[in-house]
Amino acid sequence: MGWKIPKRIKSLVLLNRDIVTTTGMLYPRESETREVRSLDGLWNFVKSDITNPTQGMRDKWYLDDLSRVRKTIPMPVPASYNDITTEHAIRDHVGTVWYDRKFFVPMSWSKNQRVWLRFGSVHYEAFVYVNGEMVVRHEMGHLPFEAEISQYVKYGQENRITVMCDNALIQTTIPQGKITELARDDGVSIVQTYTFDFFNYAGIHRSVHLYTTPSTYIEEIDFTTDLSKNNTVGFVTLAKVKIGGSVDNEAASNDLHIRVQLLNKEGIVVANTTSKSDMTAILEIKNVKPWWPYLMHHEPGYLYEMEIFLIDSNTEELQDVYRCKVGVRTLSWNNSSFMINGKPIYFRGFGRHEDSDIRGKGLDLALMTRDFNLLKWVGANAYRTSHYPYSEESMQFADENGIMIIDECPSVDTENYNQALLEKHKSAMEQLIHRDRNHASVVMWSIANEPRTGQLNAGSYFQYVANYTRQLDNTRPVTAAIAVNSADDKAARYLDIISFNRYNGWYSNPGRLDMITKRIIDEATTWHEKHNKPVIMSEYGADTVEGLHLLPSYVWSEEYQTELFSRHFRAFDILRKKSWFIGEFVWNFADFKTAQSVTRVGGNKKGVFTRSRQPKAVAHLLRKRYFALGREVDECTLIPSDLFTYITDGSSTRSSKHDSTDL
């Protein structure tokens, strides 16, 4: 915080140091022993002076209502603040902003309970105060953080929460950026620059919750699942149930145990067990219903509910209850395939963004629901959380709908590798895995997007990050979306699955549809031959202006996007005959906002859907392909009745009429 323009950081040696790890952070859920209250709504908002970002700290704005310091404006939470008003100064603000609001804490919460304050995400760095006292500081957008505030709140009275948010990105933040000073007509401007191709939205992006736990409570849950006997018997292994609160030593923990049970969708208990004091347990499910991806089974995304009861072993009194969803499935991979529940997977999906008009990257449940409806409409079975972790609510939605997730940390266009950056990168992966490790939908970890992997230290840097990721979770493969060519890349050797981004017919040879298919085949083959690992094309596409039609096809037209996709499909079908090519991901699911640029008319237009989530012409072509792949690869029998439009009754020629048999 504060404007010190960093010099280019170079380091000849990177050290694999330990980092501080996350504790707690269970998603807030009500139960017999817990209460949850939302602090979402309209907060008060103040923008700092761009040339004096630390003034609020120096003058201790957090000690009183912001309205007593400066004139405030209302600001919705959750939402990015950038596009809410009509002011350039707020949209393009660099540096700190302040939020505050009042809330009550009932007297009943003062008795034998703990009170917690939890943020789903603040971008990029947050300082949080309750009644003038700092309770937590967190760096890293897109990930949750929390603090116990029992000793800071006034029970039965009004309280104030104040948040300072700093959006500045420098060479040691994840993602990276640069702060520069540029001359303007009447002085000097502080300018934020970055190389990644999406807008650096900022603010309180996800929900804010107050919640309670008992004094002794369930703090963390970590479990894995397995299948046996031809997927008819399932196992849920609770590797860790960490107890927080008054249990400060081993002797005390011996006085507690857990009782665990699994319920099916009908609410019937299908497995239960009781732990010893080690708080571990294994549940066996006969006639299990495995978690399957969309279009691989008539009942995809099947979830059980796990109930965990913390019990005092001496009195048998209930101490705490927590519930979560469990999808029972196995993952495995080798040098030529990736499998779920023993069956090979062919990924077909998208890179996406959490992005919408007005709200920016703010959590929007209506938009999220629309997006998942479109994913299923188009026949996709997966997406990558490009280029940062998505909301916890979207991860839950993916679990429930059988959509596979390649879960990506916020590292994008990573360069200038240095020790401080490495430690923050490892922290980003640790926070992400801690949050998402129990989601059945998460099938792969992505440690970066388009890092500059030809640079000095890139090899050792990504070796450390990849190995640390496996140390945290060895049940999922590690990937990264690489844009450097295979001859120069130093990172792919440390990955389990190779993902590459390439824009043939767009950034490379724009307008040349005859320079796509062979180039894709050759590059994918080169990656596999060099590393002997499965390969995914993680990005391809072309910017397309909605409603622009040109014949013959021409760049930016809907016709060109359609033809470009078709040339990629030819390459993918040839590659699919080689078992090691395991997936295709379009860039992008929907149009999204970027920094202002002469190459971006209102943002990036590579979406199959518009920013308002309406289909471009190519969406219908892609839908036919994805459902055709579902039928061919996964033996899917779900064929939408509207997949083909009626043309003729076929009395003159059979080929005039299309139906599901043509898939």
UniProtKB/TrEMBL annotation:
Enzyme Commission (EC) number: 3.2.1.31
Task: Kindly list any coiled-coil regions of this protein.
Answer: none
The record's catalysed reaction(s) read: a beta-D-glucuronoside + H2O = D-glucuronate + an alcohol
Instruction: Pinpoint the Glycoside hydrolase family 2 catalytic domain residues.
Output: 335-627
Any one GO BP annotation for this protein: carbohydrate metabolic process
Regulation affecting activity: Inhibited by L-aspartic acid.
The GO molecular function terms of this record are: beta-glucuronidase activity; carbohydrate binding
Q: Which domain of life is it from?
A: Eukaryota
Principal cellular location given in the protein's record: other
Q: In what residue span(s) does the Glycosyl hydrolases family 2 sugar binding domain sit? A: 36-214
All copies of the Glycoside hydrolase family 2 immunoglobulin-like beta-sandwich domain together span 216-329
Cite a single Pfam family from the UniProt record: Glyco_hydro_2
Q: Which family does it belong to?
A: Belongs to the glycosyl hydrolase 2 family.
Q: How does it assemble?
A: Homotetramer.
Name of the protein: Beta-glucuronidase
User: What organism does this protein naturally occur in?
Assistant: Glossina fuscipes
